[in-house]
Design a protein that fits this description.
The chain is mainly β. It has three helices and 20 strands.
Length: 310
């Protein structure tokens, strides 16, 4: 059993999400950083898509009530067990009574805690991922709270070390490859250019639903009323104030703002590490490059984690 002593900014239970329901108004949700989530599971011998804990911005304290192996991966949060440092992107043993602490996130936003066999949660449409706006899945449909206790399976798995080159390196200035959105050419020429020149900064109004950015204004050629249209994670919208909104993992399924850019699929996992203050730059992705890069990265990581895909 794992007991939550302090929740820090937030802890939720996540798996890979519930795809195929956006037409019903239900986002996929799931781990915001799919790669770190998968690597945490792989290190404790799980299938890469086993439910794990998503810890936001640090400040979390956990107490273990039995001996077990755990793994952490994702944002750099200066982790300690009983005051002794433990490395990020590693699996290690803890004993009954030990306390794991995650300090503030110095680089990145979200870290994942995985245990052998994963965590149990409330199933909704085949997933236990927590979707907070509708109180779906997870642990009673909510973020975890102090004194919550999570049961773990009493199983033994093989601990694994991540080979060189597979653990991602994070920065507080992120570069995303993006395609032109459906309404990209409705922007004035200066805005079309500026989207790919100067970085934006994520504001305090940044969460799993979206990241409001500040920087060069994104201005349309003319003011128009747009009919609400489909949105995807990674869609960059242009609201009337000209400050873009980046749709995140739990983002709305439709929206009425111009869709200016779309982050390519292979880079979506990195959005999970955006926090208030992060610098964000966009780089143009051309033609079939997005498909070729996706195929290559899927092949690379699925050679380590069977069945993994971005």
């Amino acid at each position: 059993m794992i007991e939550i002593l302090q929740t820090g900014t937030r802890i939720t239970l996540q798996d890979v999400g519930r795809p195929g329901h956006r037409h019903e108004g239900i986002p996929r949700s799931g781990a915001a950083d799919k790669l770190s989530f998968g690597l945490a599971n792989w290190m404790v011998g799980n299938d890469w898509n086993t439910p794990a804990l998503e810890c936001v911005l640090g400040g979390q304290h956990f107490k273990f009530h039995k001996d077990m192996t755990i793994a952490i991966a994702g944002a750099e949060m200066w982790a300690q067990v009983n005051g002794q440092n433990v490395s990020n992107f590693t699996a290690f043993k803890v004993k009954s009574g030990n306390i794991l602490t995650l300090s503030f996130a110095r680089i990145g936003c979200r870290a994942y805690l995985a245990v052998p066999g994963g965590f149990q949660g409330d199933d909704f449409l085949g997933s236990i991922s927590t979707y907070l706006p509708a109180s779906l899945g997870g642990y009673k449909g909510r973020a975890l709270q102090s004194r919550d206790q999570l049961e773990t399976l009493d199983i033994t798995t093989t601990t694994r070390s991540i080979p060189k080159g597979y653990a991602p390196q994070f920065s507080n200035h992120m570069v995303f490859r993006a395609l032109e959105g459906p309404e990209f050419y409705d922007l004035c020429l200066a805005s079309q250019r500026n989207l790919f020149i100067d970085p934006y900064e994520a504001t305090q109004n940044t969460n799993r639903m979206g990241a409001r950015l500040k920087g060069n204004k994104v201005v349309p050629k003319e003011v128009t009323n747009m009919i609400s249209s489909p949105l995807l994670p990674g869609t960059l919208q242009c609201p009337p104030d000209g400050q873009p909104i980046l749709a995140m993992t739990d983002g709305h399924c439709t929206g009425g703002y111009l869709r200016t850019l779309q982050i390519i699929r292979v880079d979506l996992w990195l959005m999970g590490q955006i926090k208030p203050g992060s610098k964000i730059s966009f780089r143009r992705s051309i033609g079939d490059d997005a498909f070729e890069v996706l195929a290559g990265r899927n092949a690379f990581y699925s050679s380590l984690m069977d069945g993994f895909s971005f």
